[in-house]
Amino acid sequence: MTAGRPAALAAALRAGAAGLYRAEAGVELLISQGSWLRRGDFTGPFIVVTPGLAGRAAVAVIGWDDAVAALDGGALPCGGGERRILHLAASIAAGIPADLGEALTGLDRAGITAAARAVLHAGGHRDATVTLPSAVPPHLRRKIER
To answer: By the 8 A CB rule, do 118 and 89 touch?
Structure first.
């Protein structure tokens, strides 16, 4: 399984995380971001896939510690949103410390929604939905109206 097959890789990651709320939440957050599973420099070194046997699905796991070390060491160049999501996903899934102030305040609407959903999922609320209010937060609306 390679970076060219992100849907199959996502399914294998979900199978590998199944039943572990934190792992499921971290994997879903990473999948929701969209680009990491398309990058060979991420999927090759940091995801291990075990093929399914006897009709069972393939299972994959992420080496979160190594992935974050590579990210922080400059070996995984990426945009700010990608960086934030990988840090948050690794923190939720594997307990790797993340600066929540930096990570959360820099996310776009899709990212902050996915992060909130991941936190709820990790806390046992698997089917929780997150709905954000209008596109402009109230504290910024006043500045725009002036």
So the answer is: yes
Average predicted confidence (pLDDT) for the chain: 91
pLDDT in tens, 97-107: 999 999 999 89
What distance in Å separates the CA atoms of residue 42 and residue 13, rounded to the nearest whole number?
14
- Whole-model pTM: value is 0.88
Domain ranges of the chain: 6-145
Q: Locate tokens 């948050």: which residue?
A: 88
